[in-house]
Amino acid sequence: MCDGLRRILGDYMTVLVALEDEVVSNGRVALTHLVRTLEPFHVLFTALDTLLKDVEMKKAHGCQVLDLLYHHCNHGDPVCQSAIRSLQHHCHQVFFRQLSGWLLHGLLVDQHREFFIQPSGTTATTGQSSAMDSVDGANISTTTIKAMKQQVIRLKDSHRRRQPRVLHCVEPRLLPAYIPMQLANKMLFIGETVQMLATDEAGVRRSSAQYKGGSIFQEKEILFARQLLAVQQRSLFSFIAMEEVVMEVYSCISGRLWHYVMKEANLIEHLRVFKNYFLLGRGELFSSFITLAEQILRSPPNNNTEHDVNIAFQQAIGQLGSADAESGFSFHVHVTLPDKTAADKGSTDVATGWDRVGLSCAVTWPLHLVFTDSTLEDYNQLFRFLISAKRAAQFLHTSWVNLMETSQALKSMTDDQRLLWKLRAEMAFFVDNLQYYLQVDVLTVQLKNLVDRVETEQSFEAVRLAHDSFLASLLSQCFLNLKPASHCLREIFRMAGSLHDLLLKLSTWTSAEHQRLLDLQKMFERQSGLLLKILSSVGDHRSNPHLTQLLLRSDFNYFYSKKSAVGMD
């Protein structure tokens, strides 16, 4: 901006020198002649003074100055308008040099934090780091070899760790008003993607020789650089021209990233494996896992729980084996420990290990752009819900076996045994239909829709949006976003476990167990009826076909609805 002001003032200085020569040569110059000659600069200096005072008052710097210039260039005087546009042109030289470095090379050289894209202060992972990186450099000399080996084992057993890569964000305070936030986010995406593609899995920056054509953009880099230079050299800034170039670069980088994700990293195979594990597609594996881990996870977790449950998980995999497509994947069961602060404050939270269990997986580069930390948390939310449903179904099926053995041993059945039979059958019918709905009507259908959509797209952003939409649909159709319905389902799952525990006491049956059985029957009728009422009301208003499908499966003859109405009366 200072350079632009010097050039504008250069014309003024030229006029002053000419007047000085005229005064020296003629000796006498009329005052009116001086006023008339300098009059055009009076309006210009007034406009520039207003602009500079505005900059000073608002303490504007960097791209904020571009914003002020944009507003001040709409001046009624042609001379002032031309001068301010000249200032804008000079400032845009710096802006476009920074923008070109960011878009084409992922470089941000901004010591004074003037560009509207800034480091966000958080880090992402770009490659696998060694266990040595996690050891404090100041303490390496005092760290024993044994401790380092234990660290290596712990890192390998947990999800894959990568070297941190600084994330960036759009700083709205620095964003010029004439650049929409949507376009700014595309610029952010381009630069961060170039940074990511310019580094290998170990976080080491690649050389140009490692790319066919010598660049991430291959032969298009020179074309993009020339297009940006042409926009930069325009005497009058054109937003449309800049937007066109940015969108071309965006399409190119999105296509390259799509190729990495779809062709080289094989996203579709990852989706199918994630369904087998996170969404319990391998039902036989998790049936075995539930049996092996039941005693470990039915109580609140402690420091040894995660180790013990991973042994059970590996035993389940060892019993059933893994498919060939899953050979390159490493899943780890993690269990979140309860908050010690809440426990010290006397919290009544008695969550079991099943409520805090989750899966982690080493996601290959560059699929961490699709399977981000937030999406993995969504997968784990679904995993906890689905394994609770499967665990409830397994309890009810085991109860049937126990009831069959008991009824064969006895000549006649008591009233409590008949009630147990009836209640178990009603619960099993409800849970089995829910299981079928979840696995067939929701998970299988939604995964097929996702795969079909992904296979037809040619843009990485479209693929990522399709995956995000897939997860949002799963969370919605599993009722995890509908808190009342989710609460009813979890209560029914808990009742299935209580019924199973009650059946184990059948040989030592007392009046307390009898009362507990009656209470379970009432609670199940209340919760199942309430759930169906909630789903019916939601279905009527939103016309969701998946709700209609579940209601048809679970209450096709209005059995639960009528029972609930009678119970409430």
Describe this structure in a few short sentences.
The chain has 569 residues and is mainly alpha-helical. Helices cover 67% and strands 5% of the residues.
Structure in words:
The chain has helices spanning 2-26, 31-57, 63-72, 78-105, 145-157, 181-197, 220-233, 239-264, 267-277, 283-297, 305-320, 340-344, 353-356, 373-409, 415-456, 460-477, 483-503, 511-542, 545-554, 559-568, and strands spanning 117-128, 162-170, 331-335, 357-361. The termini are far apart. It is elongated. By secondary structure, the chain is mainly alpha-helical. The strands form 2 sheets. It has a two-stranded antiparallel sheet with strand order 1-2. A two-stranded antiparallel sheet has the order 3-4.
Task: Give the helices and strands, then pairings.
Layout: H1 2-26, H2 31-57, H3 63-72, H4 78-105, E1 117-128, H5 145-157, E2 162-170, H6 181-197, H7 220-233, H8 239-264, H9 267-277, H10 283-297, H11 305-320, E3 331-335, H12 340-344, H13 353-356, E4 357-361, H14 373-409, H15 415-456, H16 460-477, H17 483-503, H18 511-542, H19 545-554, H20 559-568
Antiparallel strand pairs: 1-2, 3-4
Enumerate the spans where pLDDT stays under 50 for 5 or more consecutive residues. 125-163, 201-205, 207-214
Mean pLDDT score, rounded? 78
Strand order of the largest sheet: 1-2
* H/E series: HHHHEHEHHHHHHEHHEHHHHHHH
Q: What is the β-strand count?
A: 4
- What structural category do the secondary elements indicate? mainly alpha
Biggest sheet overview: 2 strands, antiparallel
Q: What's the overall geometry?
A: elongated
Ends apart, CA distance between termini: 79 Å
Radius of gyration, taken over Cα atoms and rounded to an integer in Å: 34 Å
Binned, the helix content reads 55-70%
Percent of residues in beta strands: 5-15%
Q: How many helices in DSSP terms?
A: 20
